[in-house]
């Protein structure tokens, strides 16, 4: 993740998210049926915007780094290059950002713990 | 014409010759006329006694010629004043010439006005007196059109003093250029040469003063309204950098309103323990304190921010957040395996400090300052003498270094503020 976009200065490197990540449109539809049975649909296409959910399992120190990154850029445009190499420009949408201590960790994980966090990200347009 | 006076005899002779001639055969309107005037005025004063008298000559000549063709209007004045034995020793009467010459040419086209005026005063002094020679020349050129006009002023001043004793030579030239909207240029060449039989200092004092009178001062400044800047970021992808605290900070010259994350991980104020302490007050000597075992895993560190989300008609998402807007950080923990005594101590502490700012030292040795948001949370007995409590603590991690540890009773002047948000 790089921020602030487009004049990116800070880069935070994260491991690939856990399985279970999601990607979807933000479009919404409201259907109305008239008295004669005609179906009307009211659409908010939202310009094809997409939103993403990524769950990361991080070391304690990396979680603190991600929290510091969020604390600085939670209202700024962010550039994300995902685990597939796709590039997205948008905002972090989670509120609150919840870091959960998920377990103990060995020496290879700085901080001695693992933490999980779910990041919701939504494209700008 | 003769006139008697007590001073002597003054004789004036006026001889005037006036000739008016016409060109013969000029019957039409084109008549060329020539007017010549010659006037000679001679004043002669013969002194009967050596008393100072004055001689003055006032002569006014006006030539007016107005024709459709090119004509010449010339005025020639020759004035000679010859005074002999006029000055006595001690009577320092200067010899003065006053000439007023005005040439005015009115034309519709560009024309050059030129006046050449040479005045020479020569005073031959035979006695050791100090004569003074002053020339005051005022030359003014005026033209009625600001276009195609050339002004030329030739000014030559020569002071000659021949005296056996040192005298002073001074030249004073005042040049004034009044020019609007263009650059005024004044060039002065002043040369002083003194030739004397004995060595003296030759001093040249040149005082040049430029006065710029500006009616308005337009300050020009260079701005950069386009907000052009540069930024640089980098990263090094390695397995360690995906685990360590390694925010890669580049450089940025624009959009600098955001404070980047710190480059270094904050060092805990205390050491890594398996204890969880609550105490009051947060800073200073503690009056209430309770220490429990470390909480279970699945503890939560919630970070809630205040943002404004907007969506344009075209479906573009805009998010704005001011860093000064409140951000709420909540620590939610669950502690199991407590004894009833510990539960009683905790509830006593919560009762004594409900709604007050307390301190918290977590199992990593990090110090927090805030308050417990759920004092009404019940403690559950899971087994024989096994109690479980859930606690939410809202506050901020203290970034100050506490000298001498966190429990030595030293008082620090720290101010913390917490904002409770009811959702």
Poorly predicted ranges of chain B: 1-32, 67-71, 402-418
What CATH architecture of one domain in chain B do you see? Answer: Beta Barrel
> Which class of one domain in chain B in CATH terms?
Mainly Beta
Oligomeric state of the chains?
heterodimer
Overview of this protein structure:
- The complex is a heterodimer of chains A (125) and B (423).
- With 125 residues, chain A is mainly beta.
- Chain A contains 1 helix and 10 strands; from the N terminus they run ββββββαββββ.
- Chain A has one helix at 60-73, and strands at 2-3, 10-11, 22-25, 28-33, 39-44, 50-59, 78-81, 87-92, 97-104, 113-123.
- The two termini of chain A are 18 Å apart.
- The relative contact order of chain A is 0.25.
- Chain B is mostly beta strands.
- Chain B has one helix spanning 340-352, and strands spanning 2-4, 8-22, 33-47, 112-115, 150-153, 231-232, 248-249, 251-252, 275-280, 288-293, 300-305, 308-311, 317-320, 327-338, 358-361, 367-372, 380-383, 386-397.
- In chain B, the strands form 5 sheets. In chain B, strands 9, 10, 11, 14, 15, 16, 17 and 18 form an 8-stranded antiparallel β-sheet that branches. A 3-stranded antiparallel β-sheet of chain B has the order 1-2-3, with no helix packed on it. A two-stranded parallel sheet of chain B has the order 4-5.
- The longest helix of chain B is centred in the C-terminal third of the chain and has 13 residues, at 340-352.
- Chain B is elongated.
- The N and C termini of chain B lie far apart (127 Å).
- At the A-B interface, strand 2, helix 1, strand 9 and strand 10 of A face strand 6, strand 7, strand 8, strand 11 and strand 13 of B.
- Strand 2 of chain A pairs antiparallel with strand 7 of chain B, so a sheet runs across the interface.
């Amino acid at each position: 993740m790089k921020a602030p976009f487009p004049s990116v200065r800070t880069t935070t490197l994260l491991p690939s998210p856990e399985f279970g990540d999601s990607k979807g449109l933000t479009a919404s539809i409201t259907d109305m049926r008239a008295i004669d049975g005609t179906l009307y649909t009211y659409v908010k296409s939202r310009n094809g915007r997409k939103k993403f959910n990524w769950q990361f399992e991080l070391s304690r120190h990396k979680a603190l780094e991600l929290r510091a990154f969020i604390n600085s850029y939670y209202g700024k445009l962010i550039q994300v290059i995902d685990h597939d190499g796709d590039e997205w420009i948008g905002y972090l949408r989670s509120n609150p950002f919840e870091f959960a201590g998920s377990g103990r960790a060995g020496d290879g994980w700085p901080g001695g713990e693992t933490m999980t966090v779910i990041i919701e990200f939504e494209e700008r347009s | 014409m003769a006139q008697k006076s007590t001073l002597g005899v003054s004789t004036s002779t006026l001889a005037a010759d006036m000739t008016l001639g016409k060109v013969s055969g000029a019957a039409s309107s084109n008549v060329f006329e020539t007017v010549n005037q010659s006037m000679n005025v001679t004043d002669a004063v013969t002194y009967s006694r050596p008393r100072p008298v004055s001689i003055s000559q006032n002569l006014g000549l006006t030539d007016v010629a107005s024709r459709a063709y090119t004509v010449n209007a010339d005025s020639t004045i020759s004035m000679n004043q010859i005074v002999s034995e006029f000055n006595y020793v001690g009577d320092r009467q200067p010899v003065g010439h006053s000439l007023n010459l005005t040439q005015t040419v009115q034309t519709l086209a560009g024309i050059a006005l030129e006046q050449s005026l040479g005045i020479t005063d020569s005073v031959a002094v035979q006695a050791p007196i100090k004569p003074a020679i002053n020339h005051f020349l005022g030359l003014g050129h005026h033209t009625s059109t600001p276009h195609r006009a050339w002004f030329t002023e030739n000014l030559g001043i020569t002071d000659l003093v021949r005296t056996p004793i040192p005298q002073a030579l001074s030249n004073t030239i005042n040049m004034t250029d009044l020019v609007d909207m263009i650059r005024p240029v004044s060039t002065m060449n002043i040369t002083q040469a003194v030739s004397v039989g004995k060595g003296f200092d030759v001093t040249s004092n040149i005082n040049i003063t430029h006065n710029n009178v500006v009616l308005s001062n337009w300050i020009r400044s260079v701005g950069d309204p386009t907000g052009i800047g540069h930024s640089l970021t980098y990263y090094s992808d390695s397995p360690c950098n995906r685990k360590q605290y390694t925010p890669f900070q580049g450089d940025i010259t624009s959009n600098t309103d955001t404070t980047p994350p710190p480059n270094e991980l904050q060092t805990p104020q205390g050491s890594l323990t398996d204890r969880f302490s609550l105490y009051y007050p947060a800073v200073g000597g503690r009056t209430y304190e309770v220490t429990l075992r470390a909480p279970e895993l699945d503890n939560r560190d919630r970070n809630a921010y205040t943002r404004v989300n907007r969506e344009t008609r075209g479906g573009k998402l805009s998010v704005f957040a001011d860093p000064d807007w409140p951000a709420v950080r909540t620590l939610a923990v669950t502690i199991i395996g407590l004894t009833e005594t510990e539960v009683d101590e905790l509830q006593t502490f919560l009762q004594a400090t409900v709604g007050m700012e307390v301190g918290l030292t977590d199992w990593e040795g990090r110090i927090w300052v805030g308050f417990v948001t759920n004092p009404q949370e019940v403690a559950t007995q899971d087994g024989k003498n096994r109690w479980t409590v859930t606690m939410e603590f809202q506050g901020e991690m203290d970034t100050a270094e506490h000298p001498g540890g966190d429990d030595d009773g030293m008082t620090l002047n720290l101010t913390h503020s917490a904002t409770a948000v009811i959702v």
